Each structure stands twice: as C-alpha cells, then as structure tokens.
Amino acid sequence: MATTESKQIIRALYDDDDVILKAVKDTRAKGYHVNEVYSPFPIHGLDHAMGLKPTRIAIAAFLYGLTGLIVAIVMTWGMMNADWPQNIGGKPSMTWIQNMPAFVPIMFELTVFFAAHAMVWTYFAVNKLYPGADAQNPDPRTTDDKFLMEVPVKGDRDELIEFLKSSGAIEINEVTENA
Amino acid sequence: MHYEAPIREPLIIGDKSYHDITVDVARPIETAPPRSWWIVFSISLAMFLYGVGCILYTIGTGIGVWGLNKTVGWAWDITNFVWWVGIGHAGTLISAVLLLFKQKWRMSINRSAEAMTIFSVIQAALFPGIHMGRIWLAYFVFPIPNQLGSLWPNFNSPLLWDVFAISTYFSVSTVFWYVGLIPDFAAIRDRAVRPVTKHVYKILSFGWGGKAKHWQRFEEVSLVLAGLATPLVLSVHTIVSMDFATSVIPGWHTTIFPPYFVAGAIFSGFAMVQTLLIIMRKLFKLEDYITIQHIEMMNIIIMVTGSIVGVAYITELFIAWYSGVEYEQYAFLNRATGPYKWAYWSMMFCNVFSPQFMWSKKLRTSIMFTFFISIVVNIGMWFERFVIIVTSLHRDYLPSSWSMFSPTFVDVGIFLGTIGFFFVLFLLYARTFPVIAQAELKTILKSSGENYKKLHEQHGDH
C-alpha cells in the first residue's frame, strides 16, 4: 500500500508567480515534499523556498579559468622560451618573466575562454540539456505563462488536493510514475 | 516584493500579461515574412554575393587589386575590421555590463544586440583572413604541433593576440547568447503547431523544461558569463587597438588607444543598435517593449561615450603638442590640414559634435533624430579608423616614402559585401529567433509593466 502511494504525484498548475511561490512555502511548511517546480522564467527566491542548495557552478568556472591561465603560461613558456628561444625584434627570450608583458593578452584570453566554455558545457551536462533532447516540462504551458508544482502524495491524497486547491491552483492533475 | 520607486517609467507599455509577451515575441517566427522583408533580404543577398565575388577575385589575383601601396599596407581592410569589431561591442555591453549593473531596460534589447555582436564579429573576422597575401596558410597562426620541428607562432605579435581575442570573443559571445536563447526556443517549441517547426525548435531548445534547479543554475551561469564577458569586451578592443598602439608609427604609438578604442566601440556599437532597433520595433510592432525610454537610455550612453571619444581626441592633440616630438606634431598637423583633412574633419564633426545634441531631451527622445544621428555616428566611427590608419601611414618618418591612398572597387565591394552579409544574417535571425528575451522580460513585468505600476500606485505595495 505504501509503495503504490509514493508513486502518486499531484501536479498543481498555477497562473501567477507570487501565488506559486507562496504555495511552495506553505506546502513545505505542511510537511510535504515539493518534487519540482516548472516555470517560464526564474522566480526570485524560489530556490530558497524549495530548499535547493546553492549551485557550485561558479566555483567550477573559477577552476576552469585557473586551468586556462596555467595552459597559457605553459604554452607561451614552452614555445617562446623552452623550444625556440629566438631574438624576435630584440625581445628578451632568456626567461619567461622577462617577456611576460607580451604574454598577458594570451593569458587573459585563455583564462576567459576556458572558464566560459567549460562552465557552459558543465551547465549543459548537469542539466541534461543537449540538441534534440525531449522536453523536460510535462506541460507545454509552463514555458508560456503557467507554473507547475509537483508534489508526491504523502498520507491522505484528498487532503493534499484540497490543500493545493486552496493555495490557488487553477488545475490539479494526478499522475502515476512508472518507477 | 515588487517594490519600485514611482519615479521610474514603465519599461513595458500597455496592459500586458505573461501570455501577451510570449505571443508578441513569437509572432515574427510564426507568421510569413512580408514582401518588404523579401525585398530587403534580396538586396542584402545581392550585396553579399557581390562581396563574395570581390573576395574571390582578391584571393585569385592577389592583394594588388586593392588600393594598397608599399607605404600604406593597411587601409580599408583593417579599417573595416576595426569598425565591425567595434560595432560588435555594444551587444556584449548591453547583455553583460548592463546585467552586472542590474539595468532592467537591457532586457528587451539584449537579444538583438547580442545577435548584432555575433554577426558583426563574423564580418570582422573575415578581414584578417582575406587581407593575408596567402590565406591558404592562415592555419599557421594557430600553435598547432607540426612537421617543421614544430614551428610555433610568435606570441609577441598583437596580430596573434587578435587571433586569440577575436576567436575567444566570438565563441564566448555565441555561447552566452545561446544559453539565453534556450528557454525562449523552448517557448517557441511548446507553442509550435507544425511538426517541422516543433522538431527544429526541439533540437534548438535542448530539452529545456524550466525546472527550479535549472533556473538557479541559469542565473548563476548568466552572471558569471556576464562577469567574464565584461573584461573580455574591454580586452578585445584593447588588443585590437594594440595593433596600432604597440607600433613605432607617429600617430599610432599612443598609450591612450586601449580605453579610447573601447569607448569608440561602445559609441559606434550603440549607434548600430539604435539603427537596427528603431526599424525592428516598427516592423515587428514591438513598440510596447522597445520604448522611447530605451531609445533615450541608449542615446545617453551614446552621448557619454561620444564625449569620452571627444576627450580622447583633445588629449591626443594636447600630448602631440606637449611631447615636443616633431614627427608626432606633424602627424596631427597632417590630419587636420593634410590631403585627408576632409576625412579628419568629417570624423570630428560626426563623433565630437553630433552626440552633443543628445543633451537636449527633445532631441534624444525623437526617433527620427536618433535614427539620423545613429547613422552619422557610424559614418564618423568608420572615418575615425580610416583617419588613424591611413593618415599615420601615408606620411611618417621618411618624406621619400610619403604617398597617398585611394581604394579600388574591390576594396569598396568587399566592404559592401560585409554589410550585405551582416544584413542577410540579421534578417534571417529576426524571422527565426525570438528577438526579445521573453523569459527575462517576464521577470520584470510585475515591477516595470505599465499596468502593474498603475496597480501599485492605486493600491500601494501588497
């Protein structure tokens, strides 16, 4: 009995971002778990209301940028000092640091290049976004002007539905997840 | 929740709902282009094809078909290159710098401004290729291990920095633009009726569903990309300016070039955004989203950056006099009174004089006047690059090497070709991409929509 109940999911559809934000807070305060919220645009404070952890993607970007900087330093040193330490227009080529100012633009650009691209690839990977992927939103209206909250049934099903209706939902659907 | 000072004008005019925004943004994609679109597209395509012909003629015959000579080795090619790169800068300014400064008015113009960036950087990137004498060896600029004992490029050269700067700028701008496009493509996908359209936008939208966690990451990624793109945009035009600033040519060897070129880039870029958006808001009936206030804000930026450019011109003149270097002094004397004085004075007129009209509220809120000035500014900024490049080269250290420059039809044809190519891309974009970042715009509807602002006034903040 308990296993079949846990597969039941209620999808409550809302038509206002402020209403759903309050509904998410109230639903969680009532002890329910909010599986997911689908919205057409970022709702300020929603991640906090849902109890989502802050994303660490900026930390990843910093590390990618650091990698880019190291690549640039090693590359310019390897090509300009280690491999062919030539005299090009009187520029000092004995040590890397002597001619470092000329490498600053490359170091900067590669830092940005690595940080930006690797972060975006990470973003696509962790969100499972790729060309041709199936739409992740169950209701096509949620990219237009509707907001959808998914709450798995816990305890009394009818009580949950009543509660969601009273929170301002304009439409309630029940689905069974094929776990 | 949605408190905003009553002094702020609404950014979205009319009684709009979230659904209205979706419908208005999707309309150009879902309807067939009008006849006027096909006419402009055909003209652009013809110009583009003529440009392709001129490029092929140059590559097949040699750079000698251009008007360059042994003294003036750079003229229209690099002028156009810098001009197009400069135009591209406003897009990143609008999407990145204005994002960092939390400027809400950027939201209805950032998508098109970024498109403009990408399409103009494509035009710019053509010139470093086609101005090479041996374009088929262009891959040698990349540090690729090879069979010549691994022969590497020289990392001292600003032209190599350009390669890194432009390719980084282009690729980072493109992903920044695309990350922002994904939710909007998803909205088009979910509205699509025809199976082909649905399939195409399904591929383009990457399966976006607008989950809470995804939006959280989306906002973080946008912010970090804006933080990366801001120094990038400053560095790219800085590096482009170093093509000249690191030389020993009087009139080029100046430390003021990096910030001055960047200011000029913002100046000309915003002018181009004005030119495009004034037409687009009319044709696509987007006057409720791209309002007079947006145009006025951009005019203020044009005025500020135009004044920075003006200060830079005066600084250059002062330093030339103050330096006591006769070559430097002559370089500026030659600009003002030499054979290219017409170019110098038209540059001065367009860039220093014309933006000062924007101090007048009446003029800067006039669409006709803005459109006129935006064209004038772009002409002026083309002359700025031309003046800097050609007048410094045609008369420098040795009077025996003094010469003149005049372009041939191939120089002109390639430039016209890039303008055609730019508009081909932009016109295709305007009919297939959501031209307004509707997901972003919806976030400010309640704080900056006219209907909601009125409600706040009547009922106070709820």
UniProtKB/TrEMBL annotation, chain A:
InterPro entries: ActD (IPR021776). The chain crosses the membrane at residues 57-80, 100-126. The keyword Signal does not apply. It comes from the Bacteria. It holds the Pfam family ActD. Keywords: Membrane, Transmembrane, Transmembrane helix. This is DUF3341 domain-containing protein. It comes from Phaeocystidibacter marisrubri.
TrEMBL record, chain B:
One of its GO terms (cellular component) is plasma membrane. Pfam families: NrfD. The keyword Transmembrane applies. The keyword Transcription does not apply. It is found in: Cell membrane. The chain crosses the membrane at residues 37-61, 81-101, 113-139, 159-181, 221-240, 260-279, 300-322, 342-359, 371-392, 412-430. InterPro entries: NrfD-like. PANTHER family: POLYSULPHIDE REDUCTASE NRFD, PTHR43044. Belongs to the NrfD family. This is Hydrogenase. It comes from Phaeocystidibacter marisrubri.
